[in-house]
């Protein structure tokens, strides 16, 4: 089935925010980064607007070099706090457009519209709505790519910057890619490209025309990955939270060790409530519930229960925890610490509501 993946990337993000707040800079080259100190400054450019890019300026260029090329530019120090706030505002808008949302860094995000949009035309209309809403509410522009895979959507969002929408339908993929320099593939930078160039691979079309086994022979695993990208093969899902996030947990230590059941119960309730606040906010579901318990003398135990499906249910988790806790109820020692961990996380899954049948599964 054809997927509809949208990649959004703010245009010259830091510079755009400064221009929004200082409209007098609008048509001037604006450079955000280290202080140029009239050409003697150290450090680099964080970003610059498109006007400054006309002078060959770009991110990571030494600021002294930038100053030589563009001494009349407006040089500003970054204001990280402000950009973080703007980034949050933009992400709040974007995540309303799909339940399958993945933020990447401060100014990029993926949305999966496969379920939501009937076809590429509808996805394009949604992309234009996104641009309009971001501009109206936040005051900066965003470029958007729509394609059947994440890597193609990212390449597409970069195609018509600033303020562009680029649609790459599955049947147009190789036409869209074939004349591009290989550095347009995310992950191939100026340094890595040399190796590919040496082997006669300069354009993405060269990758498409090389058999997979040859790419693997020449470039190993990396060769397989870029061959897949170039051929529109990339199954990665759009996730709503970072892949590194494997679990959500919390624990509490008692002021004084205890064996009072009511005290233990209220601690479990407190921890469980705290975790679920975050779980609900991020629309996460889980399959595994783990109890952690530490007795006086530092003996620590964990016990887990994995369910056959993902759920999001605070009461149900508490009942599992109490069930797991039963094993320790005859322990003569007092409890020093209790913890709860929820893992095997997933997002965008409809959480099953608890019913009596679920309880029977404990
Ligand atoms: P990018 O999206 O790479 O750049 P950009 O948004 O400024 O420009 P474009 O229109 O090409 O997307 O990065 C987003 C922000 O991250 C950028 O505004 C500044 C910051 N950044 C750095 O601080 N250092 C860097 O080397 C890069 C690449 C970005
Ligand atoms: Mg950007």
The portion of residues assigned to helices is 25-40%
**Going by CATH, what is the homologous superfamily of the domain at 245-361?**
DNA polymerase, Y-family, little finger domain
The CATH architecture of the domain at 245-361 can be named as: 2-Layer Sandwich
Q: Write down the CATH topology of the domain at 245-361.
A: Dna Ligase, domain 1
Structural class: alpha+beta
Q: What is the tally of beta strands?
A: 13
The best one-word shape is globular
Number of distinct helices: 13
Largest sheet: 5 strands, mixed
Hetero compounds: thymidine-5'-triphosphate, magnesium ion
CATH domain class name of the domain at 245-361: Alpha Beta
Overall pLDDT level: 91
Radius of gyration: 26 Å
How would you portray this structure in words?
- The chain is an alpha+beta fold and 362 residues long.
- Among the domains are: 15-80, MutS, DNA mismatch repair protein, domain I; 178-230, 5' to 3' exonuclease, C-terminal subdomain (DNA polymerase, domain 1); 245-361, Dna Ligase, domain 1 (2-Layer Sandwich), CATH 3.30.1490.100.
- 38% of the residues lie in helices and 23% in strands.
- The chain is built from 13 helices and 13 strands.
- It has helices at residues 13-21, 50-53, 63-69, 80-94, 120-138, 150-157, 173-177, 190-198, 204-208, 212-230, 261-281, 314-325, 356-360, and strands at residues 5-10, 30-33, 45-48, 74-76, 101-104, 108-112, 142-147, 165-167, 247-258, 284-295, 300-311, 335-343, 346-347.
- A 5-stranded mixed beta sheet has the order 5-6-1-7-8. Strands 9, 10, 11, 12 and 13 form a 5-stranded antiparallel beta sheet that branches. The chain has a 3-stranded mixed beta sheet with strand order 3-2-4.
- Helix 6 links the parallel strand 7 and strand 8.
- Helix 4 runs antiparallel to helix 5 (120-138) and helix 11 (261-281) packs antiparallel against helix 12.
- The longest helix is centred in the last third of the chain and has 21 residues, at 261-281.
- The radius of gyration is 26 Å and the shape is globular.
- The chain starts with a strand and ends with a helix.
- Magnesium ion binds at residues 9-10, 13, 107.
